[in-house]
UniProtKB/TrEMBL annotation:
Location in the cell: Cytoplasm; Golgi apparatus; Membrane; Secreted
Superkingdom: Eukaryota
Residue intervals of the NUCB1-like N-terminal domain: 7-128
Pfam families xref list: NUCB1_N
Keywords: Cytoplasm, Golgi apparatus, Membrane, Phosphoprotein, Repeat, Secreted, Signal
UniProt-recorded name of the protein: NUCB2 protein
A GO term for molecular function: calcium ion binding
Organism of derivation: Gymnorhina tibicen
InterPro entries: NUCB1_N (IPR057576), Nucleobindin (IPR040250)
Amino acid sequence: KAEGHIEGEKVENPDTGLYYDEYLRQVIDVLETDKHFREKLQTADIEEIKSGKLSRELDLVSHHVRTRLDELKRQEVARLRMLIKAKMDSVQDTGIDHQALLKQFEHLNHQNPDTFEPKDLDMLIKAVSARYE
């Protein structure tokens, strides 16, 4: 309240410019609902986050958080598939390699479209870091 924020009020963050910005924000929001993970995130330095050490903490979050992350990942995979289909439709080329297209999306593990694993968090962190470096 002293900072001018009302408790529970959502602070609007500027757009990162990433094509997966909404997914990134949703993952962060869900992870921050887990007290243990939020504490680890607040005490971690940037090198721990970039190195993937923080991603290993994903195994310790609650079942509810993991279920929500799985759901977010499935939604993001569906969104990416729609983008691929739209791209295919616009090109009208039947020789498109779907796996090659999916590899363009380095912010998640496309080989496992159903569950959000530590590798997904690590890939998301690395994609954001690479973008801003």
